Amino acid sequence: MLSLLLLLLFSFTVPQRGFSQSFDPLISFSVESCTLDKALEKLFADYEINVAFSKAEMSKIKIEKYSCSYKSIEAVLTDLLKGTDYGFKKIGKQYVIRKNQVLVNDPVAVVTPPAEQQIVIIDPQQEVVPSKTADTIFIVDTVKIIRTTMRHDTTVVVRHEVVTDTVYEVKYEGWKFFRPHFQDTGWFISPSLTLAAPYFRHANAVPEIEDGSVDILPSSGFAVGVDGGYKFNRLSVGASLVYRSVRYRFLLEKTEHSGDYYVSDTLDTYYTVHPAGDTTYQYVLDSIYVPPTITNYAYRDVNRLDYLNVGLFASFDFVRMEHFRAFVKAGLSLDVLVGQGGSFMANEPPYHTSIERSQVQPVRFSFYGGLGAAFKVANSLELVPEVHYRVTCGSLYRVDYPFDLKMRSVDFRLGLIYYF
After folding, report:
1. Residue 4, number of CB atoms within 10 A of its CB
2. How far is CA 4 from CA 12, 13, 16, 315, in A?
3. What is the DSSP letter of 94?
4. Own/partner long-range contacts of 74-83 (Cβ < 8 Å, ≥24 apart)
5. Tens-of-pLDDT digits for all 420 residues of the chain?
6. Would you give the end-to-end CA distance of the chain in angstroms?
7. E strand or H helix that includes residue 304
8. Alpha helices, DSSP H only, in 164-217?
9. Are 252 and 217 in contact, with CB atoms under 8 Å apart?
10. Angstrom distance (rounded) from CA 101 to CA 112
11. How many CB atoms lie within 10 A of CB 129?
12. Which listed site, 199, 236, 268, 302, has its alpha carbon 20 to 30 Å from 354?
């Protein structure tokens, strides 16, 4: 009696799946539309039914949605393989799917199970894999590939799992050069340096001196200053403050002759008394020859006139591109004398003297016109070369200067414009 109770207790403690495998129970199975290998894998996952098959071949066979209730395993496999060129064979506890095999057990059928394989795990690899098409770069970061080979008796199941992390794509638009946006409007300031090529005109001729000559030759000039103003689309207006220095060469040559004549000299004096009481004086004379003497005067000096210019200007862009513009510019200025130096003509040897401030006009007016261009070098910065033709009104010196000296110049200006 005790043995019978122990046998009943053991029957209740046996796992359901192990019991079902021993007595081939009926199962309920369902699967969505998929390939045949997925359905067979699900059969193993749900009931641990060992099925040996070729994943490469089964993955090419698609089945429709399938569902059944309380059918034997053989009936389920028959339904799944229906309409294909494959059959199954039960060998021990596993079912082997083979091509051109009958759907029922055949005592003489021989199936060679696949060789036993060990568990192989490929360690996760972290890498960046870019692939570039014509206009898109795909980047896959942290790629993990796991391949596991599992053995259940003589059933071999190969499972591949690919895990990708941080997958993104970048639109590839080719090589591009960043260029800042061209400044169209706004207040600006512009420091500059100018090199000038002055030349001079004489309303009356350079005075001629006896046995000599006087000449005025252009030399050089420069200016440093700052402009400020406002630009609206193509038009710019503003004011300027500039220190300008003009230089020219003063040349004087004169030859002075003396001597080459006789000088009379009295050696003795006597007188004669006449009876009538008159006295006549007599002189003993001699002449002395003075030899000729030649004196040459040659003088070279660089005269300098320094001005502080306060002016107004306007410019207009006749060419305007994204990062380049060309413009015409005109302006006028009030030139205030702030310094002078050099030499001036004189009527007595050495025929030159230092220029006095009272001899120079203290204030002059100038006007100019020219062309310029602007090249964008930064977001709010332009490099601006210009060329101007400048005219100074009136004579540089007062009316008592021996001749009327008027100045013209060609200016080459290089500046930077900063918009804010």
Report:
1. 8
2. 13, 15, 21, 118
3. E
4. 74/103, 74/104, 76/27, 76/29, 76/43, 77/51, 77/103, 78/103, 80/36, 80/39, 80/40, 81/36
5. 444 444 444 444 444 444 444 456 788 888 888 998 888 888 888 888 888 888 888 888 888 888 898 888 888 888 888 888 888 888 877 888 887 644 444 444 444 444 444 444 444 444 444 554 445 555 555 555 555 555 544 455 555 555 555 555 556 555 655 555 566 789 999 999 999 999 888 766 556 677 778 888 888 999 999 999 999 989 999 999 999 999 999 888 888 887 777 777 776 776 676 777 677 777 767 777 778 888 888 889 999 999 999 999 999 999 998 889 999 999 999 999 999 999 888 878 888 888 888 889 999 999 999 999 999 988 889 999 999 999 999 889 886 666 678 899 999 999 999 998
6. 108
7. strand 293-320
8. none
9. no
10. 13
11. 11
12. 199
Is 87 within 8 Å of 79 (Cβ atoms)?
no
> Are 52 and 95 spatial neighbours (Cβ–Cβ below 8 Å)?
yes
What pTM value is reported for the model?
0.52
| Separation CA 131–CA 137 (nearest Å) | 6
281 token code pair: 């004086």
- CA torsion 313-318-320-324 (nearest 10°) is -60
Task: Output the CA–CA distances (angstroms, integers) from residue 401 to 71, 217, 262, 274, 395, in the order listed.
Answer: 132, 17, 39, 65, 10
* Cβ-Cβ contacts under 8 Å for 283 (sequence gap 6 or more): 266, 268, 269
Distance CA 37, CA 53 (A): 8
